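Good morning C.,

I know you're traveling, so I'll keep this short. The sequence:
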Amino acid sequence: MQLRQFSVLTFDCYGTLIDWESGIWSGLQPLVARCPNPPPRDAALAVFGAAESAQESATPSLIYSKLLALVHRRLAADWGVAAADGEAEAFGAAVGDWPPFADSAAALAYLKRFHKLVILSNVDRASFARSNKRLGVAFDAVYTAEDIGSYKPDPRNFRYLLDRLAEAGHRPGDILHVAQSLYHDHGPANHAGLASAWIDRRHGAGGGATPPAGAAVRYDFRFASLAELAAAHSDEVNSR
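The tokens, ready to paste straight into the viewer:
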């Protein structure tokens, strides 16, 4: 199997292209600062990840910016801290301010020369549009939880992706799904019959904002960064 055999690369965005853990941690600082015993970064992110996943299951049709506001309120209650007026809403509205990984824009620009690029994201369209400006590439299609009415890892999200791409003439074998989260992306991609590339942004360290995945999750490629994937792709192209 080679990277260049795929005509379509589908991407998770937050955690893969956008550094969501840095964005989340930054946005939680006002709340964390008021905690009697402030949690360390990874512990706070783990609590966030569990609360986010529970909220997505409970309110699958709620758009992400509003869902994040509810998650913020959950964290405030869990930590026994009163949130300031408007703080939860500001946290939910800040997704577009989260920073891209340093390698995302250049790697996407390179890959765009060879593949259709598609987003499958758990956010809302308005939030993604702001992030897209930071990534600097025109995606060929964007599918969000707002469009689908559910959140990954719900299999409906990958079913929606495959159905829309089939309408454009792309078969599952044409598609490589590229993502950081084994829980949100690689597990359901396995069930959908898709090949996948793991962008291991945490370099083998578990935890953080991504819930743990089941032991049976598999992937076809593993890279420490998107730049590493692009470099491997370039090696394939140049070795022909």
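Safe travels,
E.
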